[in-house]
Amino acid sequence: MYPDLSYVFHALLGTEPDNILSVFKTFGFFLLLAFLAAAALLKHDLRRRERIGQLKGKVVERMPGGTVTVWDYVFNGIFGFVLGYKIPFVVSNLGRFREDAGSVLLTSNGWWWTGLLGGALFAGYYYYLGTKQQASGMQKYTVYPSDRVGPITMVAALGGILGAKFFAIIEYLPRFFNDPIGVLLSGDGLAIYGGLIGGAAGVMLYARSHKIKVLPLADAVAPGLIVGYGVGRMGCQFSGDGDWGIVAGAQPDWWFLPDWAWSFTFPHNVLNRGVPIPGCTFEFCTELPQGVYPTSIYEVIMAFTIGAALWALRKRLTNLPGLLFCVYLFLNGVERFFIEFIRVNDRYDVLGFALSQAQLIAVGFMVSGALLGYLAWRRGTVVN
């Protein structure tokens, strides 16, 4: 496993791990790749839908050269302050940051004077830009949905984080009541379905505020959403973040993948969970005592397969707004419902069945996808 970049270089070049490169976390890197992959696929399909006239641009008025507003000063001043406030504090607490990044980043601790300096520099830079610009009267511009992929991605990320944290708190209420501040500020404990619901809510509100048709946008989002999920699960596998299954059974004769894809002990996992690895002197020197199902690998395969299917269907279903997203909901629910049977998770008694929170939401996804998909199908015909 590679909890951070220093372990990647150790595996490739033999350098010592736990050095300065350990501030770059493997899961965070794949999370960034997931957002980039989803944004790229979204932009590509939005442009296609704009070319065929399904999505329209919005005409806005803007002062040429007068692009720096009061909000630019406010936002970038705050952004510069946060960077200046936290970065020097992180550098001065690298050891603690390597062990638990959330305990350093998600706290009120920092350096005030460097924060004020950072805020002044960022705001000053935009003031400089503003003084160089010359206004020459208001002009009209057409802004298309594909031009808004950046803000859409940011809104999805923010809504996803809030939703993930909310659903994680609901699932582990006793832990929250014991330490509400610690749980809120912790970087762990994020529910993936909560992130999906929170991100979807944020994007829907953003779309309505900018008069973007919600159903075609949802269809355009669907392939990138499941592919991004798959990329994120790659980060789970490479870092060993606890997204693993129950103890693996005996490997069957028909198994054609590598042995580690059936049973894996996640050595050097980022959680430092398990038993000590003999002779290891690194910071992350544990592995699970028994091989478990590497469920993140299975989810990567299923996510990319679903993503390929949605990408292949997107043109045929263009004239049925919302149907592609319904297909995504159904297949996503099927994938998560069945993978949960071999994952480690808390279970609830539901009508005599022991189901996890994710399975309950997955059932909702499957039912919603089937019913809403049927209604979308009734509204039109498939494009040949």
Helix content: 55-70%
Largest sheet: 2 strands, antiparallel
Question: What fraction of the residues are assigned to beta strands by DSSP?
Answer: 5-15%
Stretches with pLDDT under 50, minimum 5 residues: none
Mean pLDDT: 84
Helix-strand makeup class: mainly alpha
- Number of helical regions: 14
Radius of gyration: 24 Å
Reading the helices and strands in chain order gives HHEHHHHEHHHHHEEHHEEH
Distance N to C terminus: 46 Å
Can you list the strand order of the major beta sheet?
Answer: 1-2
How would you characterize the overall build of this protein?
The protein has a domain at 59-143. With 384 residues, it is mainly alpha-helical. Strand 5 (348-350) and strand 6 (353-355) form a beta hairpin. The chain has helices at residues 5-13, 26-51, 70-92, 94-99, 101-105, 112-132, 149-171, 173-178, 180-185, 192-209, 214-239, 295-313, 323-339, 357-378, and strands spanning 58-62, 139-143, 275-276, 286-287, 348-350, 353-355. Helix 2 packs antiparallel against helix 11 (214-239), helix 3 runs antiparallel to helix 6 (112-132) and helix 13 runs antiparallel to helix 14. The mean pLDDT is 84.
